[in-house]
Amino acid sequence: MKKLFVVFAFLLTVSSFAQKGLGMFGKDPIINLENFDKQRVHWGYYLGFNSYDFKFDYLNVDKDIEVQTTTGFNVGLIGNLRIMEHLDLRFEPGLYYTQRNLIYPNIEDEFDRRREVRSTYINFPLLLKFSSKRIGNIRPYLIGGFSQSLNLGSNSKAKDDNYNERWRMKRMTGNYEAGFGIDLYFEYFKFSPSIRGVFGIEDELIRDNTPDSPWTGNVASMKTRGIFINFAFH
């Protein structure tokens, strides 16, 4: 929630700065890229940050596994197809790097208590973008849809498990995504800061070979969730 608040405050600051800017975003702004959104197809790219987490469900009531999140980075491409005036279809393939640290409170050994889960995802989201009416050089929007993620660090084919310090996850998983952003129109390009949540819809965990494993034996499901902060340029 703190991260969401910080990002929301950032987007409000960007919007406020844009509205108070001279020339481009003032009371009677010079309209930039007036026909940009009328293109049938246009392209772009994005850079950004992520904070991935896990949502655990358990077979039996016990102490929760603690998930320590870190800040990762994103980079990707944007393909935008205009469907109608306020609706676009987007494909945003990208590379997402992240790390999550899992702490098991029931394991006494300090080394075995901690597991580092490093993941490099190739994300394939297909999204619908709902844009408001453009006001000067500002246009807020909502965006949402579904994605498939290929986890290059899944260790899904490894025979070793946590008893050999190997954390295993499924290689391909599905998610749904939802967020909001602001299009800011400058003289030569469009800049779009946005925030988006990602929520896994499948159990991603590959259990250890031993059914009563202290790392995976009590886990009913493990699903990804996270926050993306992207800065797009068109």
Automatic annotation (TrEMBL):
Keywords: Signal. Residues 39-204 form the Outer membrane protein beta-barrel domain. Pfam families: OMP_b-brl_2. Residues 1-18 form the signal peptide. This is PorT protein. It comes from Flavobacterium suncheonense GH29-5 = DSM 17707. The lineage of its organism: Bacteria, Pseudomonadati, Bacteroidota, Flavobacteriia, Flavobacteriales.
